[in-house]
Structures are given as structure tokens and as C-alpha cells.
Amino acid sequence: MRYLYILAIGLLVMSCTQQNEERTIISALDDRTENDFIAKPTTNAIVSALQIDADIWAGYGFRYGQLTDMEHTRRYETFIEPKFSLFDNEFKRKKEVADFKKDIATALESDADSLGRSYSRIWEPILAELRVLGQDSLQDATLYVFSDLRENTPWFSTYRYRDSIQLLEHPNKVARLYVDKAEEFVGMDNVEMVIVFEPKTVLEDISFAQHKKLYQDVCDILGVSIRFTANLNQE
Questions:
Q1: In angstroms, what CA-CA distances link 43 with 26, 191, 199?
Q2: Phi, psi of 141 (to 5 degrees)
Q3: Cβ distance 205 to 170 under 8 Å?
Q4: In this structure, is the dihedral angle defined by the CA atoms of residues 166, 167, 169 and 173, taken in order, positive or negative?
Q5: Lowest mean per-residue pLDDT among 59-63, 97-101, 114-118, 192-196
Q6: pTM, whole model, 2 decimals?
């Protein structure tokens, strides 16, 4: 009986170890190319989306970056490793969770990139972040993009008349242009992208509708799960 008991305990520990290797990750890309977006990432919304209070023992991670005129900008990241409720101190764990939430707040309160913003690079930084999030199959990751999705780069810009007309009249050609930027990109099952934007005017609503279709078409081709919401707090 003693050996059966030891075997049962061993199997339990192995099961818990396998479950605790998994981690929930949220990444937020905050469009700083304009200053008047309604939807913004907040600590409460991120913590709620992670659902960390429902299970303080699981593993969690948060990444944060800003969309500017640069393809590569700094990423803030903070993680809390999984622990075993049977073997670890609950008071200590609650302190670790509280510190993790403070790290999220610190990241979101970081200053905007001080470089100029002659352009708005949106799609390429999104691709780079999707690649990072998809590297670890044990991660259940969600990328929240707070943006109107309006690209303004040398290769495409809806602020240029000819490009805006092309998006309106030949959306398939524009979608192919975006797909071509995703060289050797492989879709992943463990990552979902959520676009968060709330239009303020009718013109913004029309523009965003065009970009929603564009991104949906591009993500369908690349095998990326995508959805849209006006407010992260409504998730």
C-alpha cells in the first residue's frame, strides 16, 4: 500500500507540473501616433483579462509596447511563474501577485517614445510581436492592439490619396501587399489578436470599417485569429 501511495503522489505531482508549465500571456501595443484615442490599456482591464484573481497559482505574463514611427521599439515585460498551492505559501504568493500588478501599472505609465512621428508603423510591429508570442507553444497568448490601424509608411499610407483609393477600390491588392510583408510567417494556434478601437466620428467609423475588413482578410490568409472590440473593459 505504501508503494501505491507513493506512486499516486508521484503521478499527482507530475500532473501538476505539466499543468503549471502553461502560462497566460497578454501583450498590449499602444498606438501613440495620435493622442486622442478613446480606448486605452489600463491596469484593471489587463488584470481582468488575465483572470489572475481567479487562480493566483497559475503562470502569467505581460508585455507592453508603443506603436510609433519606428518598426522596432522597446518592449516592457513582466512575468510571474506558476506555483503549487499544495506546497507554497499563500501569503507570499499574494504578495508576488500584488507586485506583478504593480509592474503592469508601471509599464503602462511609461513615457511615450520621444522620437518624432513622421509616420505610423502599425503592421510590421504587429507581425514582430505575433512572432514573439507564437514561439512558445505552452503560452496561451492574446495580443491587444489599441489603434485605428491607419498605416502611414513609405510602402503604404491611407493618408496618401492614391493609397486610400486603392484600399477602397482594390482591397484585395492591398491585402496582398500586407501579406507580402509577412515573409515566412507561420500562423499559430496559441495566439489571438484583438483590435481595440472606438471611433469618435462617422468618418473614423467608415475608415475603421475598411481597415477591419483589410485586417480580417490578411489574418485569414496568414492563419491568425483576430477579433475587434470597442473597449477592453467589455471583454
A1: 12, 21, 22
A2: -115, 145
A3: no
A4: positive
A5: 114-118
A6: 0.86
pLDDT tens-digit readout, 148-178 = 999 999 999 999 999 999 999 999 999 999 9
234 grid coordinates:
467589455
- Going from the C-alpha of 131 to that of each of 30, 126, 127, 219, the distances in angstroms are 18, 9, 6, 14
> Containing H/E element for 192?
strand 191-196
Give Cα 73 distance to the centre of its chain. 15
How are strands ordered across the β-sheet holding 76-80?
76-80, 59-67, 23-31, 139-146, 191-196, 225-229
- Integer CA distances (angstroms), 144 to 204, 208, 210, 230, in order: 20, 16, 19, 12
Dist CA 211 CA 99 (whole Å): 38
Q: Looking at per-residue confidence, does 14 or 137 come out higher?
A: 137
